Amino acid sequence: MITFLLNQELRQEQNLSPNMTVLNYLRTRIGKTGTKEGCGSGDCGACTVVLGERDGDRIRYRSVNSCLTFVPALHGKQLITVEDLKSKDGSLHPVQQAMVDFHGSQCGFCTPGFIMSMFALSKNKPSADQHDIFEALAGNLCRCTGYRPIVDAAKAIAEQPQLADEFSRYEQQLVARLAKMDTDTLVTLNGDDKVCFSPTSSDELAALLEQHPDARLLAGGTDLALEVTQFHRELPTMIYVGNVADMKTLEETDAGLVIGAARSLSDSYEALSNYYPDFGELLHRFASLQIRNQGTLGGNIGNASPIGDAPPVLIALNATLVLRKGDRVRELPVEDYFLSYKVTAQEPGEFIERIIVPKPSANQHFRVYKLSKRLDDDISAVCGAFNLTIENGTVTAACIGFGGMAATPKRAAGCEQALVGQPWSMVTVKAAMKALEADFEPLSDFRASKEYRTRTAANLLYKCFIEQQDLKLETRVTSYV
Fold first, then answer.
1. What's the pTM value of the predicted model, to 2 decimals?
2. Order of strands, edge to edge, in the sheet holding 58-65?
3. CA 215/CA 210 separation, integer angstroms
4. Contact criterion met (CB below 8 Å) for 35 and 80
5. pLDDT band at 481 (very low <50, low <70, confident <90, very high)
């Protein structure tokens, strides 16, 4: 049985299909239809809701896509929808009122999602600047192209840093109510001949996977949920890892960062960005904030997509996976994890427990470039990561990872060989660009042709070279401002 708060109402669900999304739960079981379904794939943001979670003596609010969130993920949390924002006296929430005042709603279908993203922003960054606003709203699409008044409404809210609402006034009461919920015990949700287990430790997870080696692991669900919403498949047995506390940690050691596989991308951003600013810049363009609030680094690896953004970066950084099966633990370089299309070295009953990312060394230069049709909320056509060690003008080490160029994320071995031991010069780079063309045989698809991928992959190495020449050139377009 799962227990959560629907705004202020205590809800307990036992006989409910764990394949049900929060979106369908709200619309078909509860009758709250303010939350809309636009795409069913986490692209449009019309279904955005906010989850409140206890964080010490405060409540932390996260915007998420309800179309990609399965109901087991609600356990121990508060679910807030657009209907819940108005005050008890019926007056609009300040965010809702701002949308009215600035004429931010046109057809209105997208409006609830925008309002919920703005509500979460007002809680997390009360004095949000334009960058914060754009980031918060990037996962919400308005098909009437009415962004200017929506952004104006968000700016007006940001000018009220002491925004008072009922969520602020009753925060401590809510903390106490959530604290009373038992989130330290394994819970199970059954319904429609399907089951989802929610362990609270990696030991429990390991034991469950030994009993159910064919179970699907559910973390953020941003990809797994598509099997239900887009392909109409059934997931008979799932294990939700979002409550596994020891897999949501981030530890900094002398050698590197040890990141729990169930830690969200949003929570991993600061540490990764501190050591590798380009990694942080990539995470800013990783889908949308709603997706980053749910998606995990472990899930992005385990999904084994050839166009996943994190794997080529982790390959270039010589990152290592900690894999566990029962009591057995082994380490595996990320580059050795991917065997062929959607096939990995992970054994039945085994799971990714942690990811180890080494810290940068002296004379190390790291660059990441993502090519996609949109700046925000889009999947890579090509993603290239370049990790070069340059000493006294000579390339002494090179590790280069690419996504979108093969059936798996993959190293550019020939390109690396053409660089190592050679002077960091235009002549060397041109030779390495030629070698890179022989490293991959990319496919053509609706995102890009094989010719485009081959040419641009080589040009990214050239771009990396240009950026390290200390020239006053603008080489990146990473902002609409």
1. 0.94
2. 9-13, 2-6, 78-80, 48-55, 58-65
3. 10
4. no
5. low
